[in-house]
Specification:
This protein is mostly helical. It contains 4 helices and 2 strands, in the order ααααββ.
């Protein structure tokens, strides 16, 4: 059973982010399958949470390197998602209850495509505008990196 399929529509043409996003989609689908049998749901969820923490840390590293303020809206959204995911894990351990995990899964499935399309696409666009190579950390257009930190998501349509 696939609850979210990776398609070209989700691709942002940035290899590191696209690979991480593909892995995220795979883990969401693994969790959906695990929740059907319940016996392996917790370890799959823990892998999803660890992956999501690394995924967001990678993107936030790109944001920091390219001039985003630490409290930008993209990072705030990451923090909110991680907070909910961590609360679900605490609840699951304390109550031995998978229901919050079942409730969170469709929310993540609905959230992710729009987050990628808006926030992550804006980050990728900004990275290209300043010539940032995430593989090396080098800038091909260092003069494009502004002195004023970006507090939005990196797009003029987000404030």
């Amino acid at each position: 059973m696939s609850i979210l399929t990776w398609t070209d529509a989700l691709a942002l043409q940035q290899p590191q982010i696209d690979q991480t996003h593909q892995e995220f989609v795979v883990l969401l689908n693994e969790l959906a399958l695990a929740l059907q049998t319940e016996d392996s749901a917790l370890p799959v969820y823990q892998r999803l949470l660890a992956h999501t923490e690394q995924h967001f840390a990678m993107e936030e590293g790109f944001m920091a390197a390219t001039g985003f303020a630490p409290d930008n809206c993209h990072s705030k959204q990451h923090a909110m998602v991680l907070d909910v995911m961590r609360q679900v894990l605490v609840h699951t351990h304390a109550e031995h209850d998978l229901e919050p995990m079942r409730n969170l899964l469709p929310e993540l499935v609905n959230w992710f495509p729009s987050h990628a399309e808006m926030m992550d696409a804006a980050l990728v666009f900004h990275m290209s505008q300043v010539g940032f190579d995430p593989a090396t950390g080098a800038f091909s257009k260092p003069a494009m990196v502004g002195a004023e930190p970006i507090s939005s998501c990196g797009s003029g349509s987000c404030g």
